[in-house]
From TrEMBL:
CDD domains reported in the protein's UniProt record: HAD_sEH-N_like
Gene Ontology terms, MF aspect: hydrolase activity
Protein's UniProt name: HAD family phosphatase
Alphabetic keyword roster: Hydrolase
Species in which this protein is naturally found: Rhodopseudomonas palustris (strain ATCC BAA-98 / CGA009)
Length: 208
């Protein structure tokens, strides 16, 4: 960031969903799949990125069935698609502590949008279980639906154009440094979120 935020400095707010709006823990999925947790769970899941399967799943180019087949192969599982889907959706913990009142507060004054790397199975799950939280957003830009994902620059360009507001007037919240940096390179004002306190602090700076 090169400048500090000030009241009135934004015309729209753009939120990542995972670990910004909805909390998740990959270990919950691996536990549900009965995968040994002794090693780094992220290292285990990295196996799914072989041949770009996971990224293609998140951009809508791989079906649930194809993804679950890759899971079975990568992790040596014999679970059915239904069992894998149940475990895959067990990743969600609940809403991020403190985020609901902040979204309600912000939505009263500015349009809210979401940009998230996700997949069809997760979309079906969180659309149902977190409907009251997601109602604050005018539009959800979900990677498997728009066919592109963060941190690719074209993703931010697509969303900025769809929102119809200059990028420097959009404040973007994401938990991953690489996504924040990529957003800044595309002209957005981006905030890395470690907890809802970072969102609250930004809303205060904006006078919301």
């Amino acid at each position: 960031m090169t400048t500090a935020l000030a009241p009135g400095a934004a015309d729209a707010l753009l939120f990542d969903l995972g670990r910004v709006v909805i909390d998740y823990d990959l270990r919950r999925t691996l536990k549900a799949w009965a995968v040994e947790l002794g090693s780094d769970p992220h290292a285990l899941m990295a196996k799914l990125a072989q041949n770009d399967t996971f990224h293609r799943y998140e951009t809508g180019h791989v079906t649930d069935a194809e993804f679950f087949a890759a899971v079975r192969t990568a992790l040596g599982l014999t679970l059915t698609d239904a069992q894998l889907r149940e475990g895959w959706n067990a990743i969600f913990i609940g809403e991020m502590p403190g985020i609901a009142p902040l979204l309600d507060r912000a939505a009263k004054q500015l349009p809210l949008y979401a940009l998230s790397n996700t997949n069809d199975s997760h979309i079906a799950h969180f659309s149902e279980h977190y409907a009251e939280l997601l109602v604050h957003f005018r539009e959800l830009f979900l990677s498997s639906r728009i066919g592109m994902r963060k941190p690719n620059g074209e993703t931010y360009d697509f969303v900025v154009k769809a929102i119809g507001i200059a990028p420097q007037r959009i404040v973007f919240f994401d938990d991953l440094a690489e996504n924040v940096e990529a957003a800044r390179e595309r002209g957005l004002y981006a905030v890395q979120v470690h907890s809802s306190d970072d969102v609250a602090r930004t809303l205060d700076q904006l006078g919301l």
